[in-house]
Design brief:
Layout lengths: L2 H21 L4 E5 L2 E3 L4 E6 L8 E8 L6 E7 L5 E6 L5 E7 L2 E2 L3 E6 L1 E8 L2 E8 L9 E8 L2 E9 L1 E2 L8 E8 L7 E6 L1 H4 L6 E2 L3 E2 L1
Parallel strand pairs: 2-9
Antiparallel strand pairs: 1-3, 3-6, 4-5, 4-7, 7-8, 7-9, 10-11, 11-15, 12-13, 12-16, 14-15, 16-17, 16-18
Length: 210
C-alpha cells in the first residue's frame, strides 16, 4: 500500500469520525423562566436522544462565585426519555444535564434580589432588599424612584444596612428614604445592576401609590 493511499484512508476515516461525532444526538435541555426574583423557582426540562424510561440523568449546577459545576440532583427519565426538575436558584446559575458521557448545553438562570417598598411615615419610605446564597448587600445603594409621565426619576438614594441575622439563609438589608412627593404619586424602589452584580440582576419593587 502506497503512502498516498494510506494518507487518503486516514483522512477518510478521520472525516467519518468527525461527521459521526457532529451528528451524534445530544441531551436536550431548556429552562423556564430564564430569569427570576429570589425565592422563585424554575423548571428544567429536557430529553435524552432515545425514548427510554428509567435512565439516570444528573443535573449539574455552576453557581456564581464557584469555580466548577457540581451535581445537585439525579433524575430518572419517563418512558419517552424526557425529564423535568423544579429548583430555586439563589444566585445566577448555569445548569447542564449529563446522561452517561453525554452532556447537554448549559442554560443560565438570572436571579434578581427581592426588592420591596413600604411607607414608613410622612415623607419616609422603607426599602428592603433580600438575597440568599451567602450574599449580603450591606453598604450598597438602593434608589427611590417616582413616575413622571412615562419616565421613572430617582428622587432619593439610601445606603442599606443588614437587618437580618448574620446566620440567616436569607439576608435582608434595609434603608429608609426621605422624600416629599405629590399626592397620588407612583413610587418604586430599585436596586441597580451596578450594585447587584456579579451574581444578581437588577431588582425592582412593585409600585407603591401614595
Amino acid at each position: 500500500m502506497t503512502r498516498g493511499l494510506i494518507a487518503l484512508l486516514l483522512t477518510t476515516v478521520a472525516g467519518a469520525v468527525a461527521v459521526s461525532a457532529a451528528a451524534a444526538p445530544t441531551v436536550a435541555l431548556k429552562v423556564a423562566p430564564g430569569a427570576i426574583v429570589y425565592g422563585q423557582e424554575v423548571v428544567l426540562s429536557g430529553k435524552i436522544p432515545v425514548a427510554r424510561g428509567g435512565q439516570k440523568v444528573v443535573v449539574r449546577a455552576h453557581t456564581c462565585h464557584f469555580t466548577r459545576a457540581v451535581a445537585v440532583k439525579t433524575l430518572q427519565t419517563r418512558k419517552n426519555g424526557s425529564f423535568a426538575f423544579r429548583i430555586g436558584p439563589t444566585l445566577r446559575t448555569a445548569y447542564s444535564v449529563a446522561w452517561g458521557k453525554r452532556l447537554s448545553r448549559q442554560v443560565t438562570v438570572g436571579v434578581a434580589p427581592d426588592v420591596s417598598l413600604g411607607k414608613a411615615g410622612a415623607g419616609s419610605y422603607l426599602i428592603s432588599v433580600a438575597a440568599g446564597g451567602g450574599s449580603t448587600f450591606e453598604g450598597k445603594q438602593a434608589q427611590l424612584q417616582r413616575a413622571v409621565g412615562r419616565t421613572w426619576r430617582t428622587i432619593a438614594t439610601v445606603s442599606l444596612k443588614l437587618t437580618s441575622s448574620p446566620t440567616a439563609l436569607t439576608a435582608v438589608s434595609t434603608g429608609t428614604a426621605k422624600a416629599q412627593v405629590p399626592p397620588r404619586s407612583a413610587l418604586r424602589a430599585v436596586f441597580p445592576l451596578g450594585q447587584a452584580k456579579p451574581c444578581y440582576r437588577a431588582g425592582i419593587s412593585s409600585t407603591l401609590r401614595t
